[in-house]
Amino acid sequence: MKDKYFKANMKYILLLLIFFAVFIWSAIHPKSYYIWLFESMIAILSITLLVIIYKRYRFSFLTCVLILIQASIILVGAHFTFQDVPCFKMNISEHLTKGYFDWIAHFTFGFVISFISIELIIYHVNLKSRKFAYLLVLSIALSSAAFWELIEWGACLLSSNSFDLTQGYKWDTQWDMFLTFLSAIMALPILKKTHLKSLKD
User: Fold this and answer.
1) Of 35, 135, 149, 170, which has the maximum CB count within 10 A?
2) What is the pLDDT of residue 166?
């Protein structure tokens, strides 16, 4: 019985093992344990929740792969801090250099939250209007991005501005939300057929 369960769930177990490997690497001598704890918390809590609800509710394998990619990106950013990830620097102006790895994280988040929302809304809530469902997915993606920015703002205030996630770039918050919204729009037409097939497997 246990062998059958293991074989049926082996690919999900493999994803979990990959997450643990990245998590252990990320937790070893990060640049700042305070920043690491804050920035990695969303990944840790998300994977923990998925494990807890796994027997009652399981997302498609494709969605779980996207969640793993997103969690891994977050853990990499938490290890170095998002502004100091090697090879991800750009000159905003003559006096400002910004690490743009956080923009990658926000862009991939749009795909992840869209696929999670699509599964919950279309395939389990059975919303009849697909157009309204997709509009709702985009709304969830944008509101989730805005909510995260509020959390970052709160962390900045609590740390007396010593924890500045905007890296001194005044349009960083707007870019974060825009990239999440953009990728959510891209996710719907580009990956729709692939996602449908994944749900049938």
Assistant:
1) 35
2) 57
